[in-house]
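Dock magnesium ion; give full complex structure.
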Amino acid sequence: MRHSQATVEATGVTVEFARGRSKQAPFRALDNVDLEARPGEVTCLLGPNGSGKTTLMNVLTGLLAPSSGHLRVLGLDPATQRRELLRRIALVPQETSLYPELTARENLVFHARYYGMPVRDQRARIEETLDLVQLGSRASDRAGTFSGGMQRRLALGKALMMKPDLLLLDEPTLGVDVQSREAIWQRIEEVAEEGRAVLLTTNYMEEAQRLGDHITIIDRGANVVRGSLTELTSQLPETKRAEVPPVSLQDVFLHFTGSGLRN
Ligand SMILES: Nc1ncnc2c1ncn2[C@@H]1O[C@H](COP(=O)(O)OP(=O)(O)OP(=O)(O)O)[C@@H](O)[C@H]1O
Ligand SMILES: [Mg+2]
């Protein structure tokens, strides 16, 4: 599958943030990072807190300009073609954004219209989505009155009901209960099976292990390892591979990110 044209192509992406008042050198949040996401695949970007996942998402959607690097998303340059890009992707940022005064259903209707979902599809897809994120019985309640996890599910619903060329999810199931998570994972798999590209960030090993056709691990703003789960585990030293079978993604993650040293 890896030979098809990449939907996301990022090479050598570097992002620096000025450090407020001090005269210190800028903080390098991303250092020469490479990332690819392909149609028909779920690509997981895995990294500890502060490793630069959200920063990279912001670069890919044109919210943030990198100080250097080459970027193409759906063949477009996010820095100069942001409007066109945003029409073709569905995005769930890390911070949930909803209209709190609108009901759950109204939030979906608004999103569907704004992003030009065909009118004939709207009613069915909105009702299906409310079921998918298990908010059917709360569809007429205002989103602002929902619990954190319910708001997160509604925000996911907004993206999952669309048919984008690229689905970008920043920690999609953070705070989502197991009952809803399984349905959401299945929908994410379907999106990839439909031939679309999915790129998601996560801290959940289980999520990356389950969904990731391709996994890119970053740590402190830099690439550490990338490949399929099998490719990643084969990169562990012999001694670690021999440990309790089967080797889990968590073993790979802790080995390469040095997070094990912090504990
Ligand atoms: N606007 C900003 N100004 C200065 N530093 C920033 C800014 N945005 C992010 N950073 C820094 O860049 C680093 C990467 O942050 P980022 O939010 O991308 O991490 P993350 O991998 O998404 O973490 P998490 O798992 O907690 O969501 C952090 O050290 C953060 O403090
Ligand atoms: Mg983040």
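Observed: Residues 8-97+166-262 form a domain with the Rossmann fold fold (CATH 3.40.50.300).
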